[in-house]
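Late entry, written up from scratch paper. The run itself happened at the end of the previous shift, but nothing got recorded in the book at the time, so transcribing now.
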Amino acid sequence: TILRSGSLILGEYTRQFEREFASFVETRHAVSVNSGSTAVEILFRLKCITGRKVLVPTNTNFATVAAIIRAGGVVRYLDMDPQTFAPTLAMVQEEVEGVPDVAGVAWVHIGGIVSPEFLSVVEYCRARRLFVIEDAAHAHGSQLGGVKAGKLADAAAFSFFPTKVMTTCEGGMITTDSDEEDYLARSYRNQG
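Output as recorded:
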């Protein structure tokens, strides 16, 4: 069907997939891109992290770290709680209060597990005007308190690589409720 349509990329089927994914996650927008790595990098670029520190868990794929570096940020690692495979609120607080110029947090829902402390982390960061980006590469359909990953923080990046819960063999998706971030992400994905 797609081959016969004559529109191999960014056509009606892409728009339909984006609408349905946004509906699934319950965000206003979903923007498809070529990979989960690109999705997270675009989000960091939208947060203007050049020269600023971004907290990221050590328990992640290097793609998350590389995206921060490519977007001009400075990586600060957080340890993990062996029960949740994620940092704790106390770990985030210690870094934020001890390190100047933290821009935000890249939170990874490793293995699709959403830490029960995550909403407290988001609340803490919002009170300090720090962004929280969800690296939800493994978290399609994961939930916390009835809210799906991809809707829990400021924005999220998903991956559709073959090893993920949901796959298209390749590709990624950005979810956001921000009209401005939706507009800019669509520009970035098509040569900026």
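The mean pLDDT is 93.
(Scratch paper discarded after transcription.)
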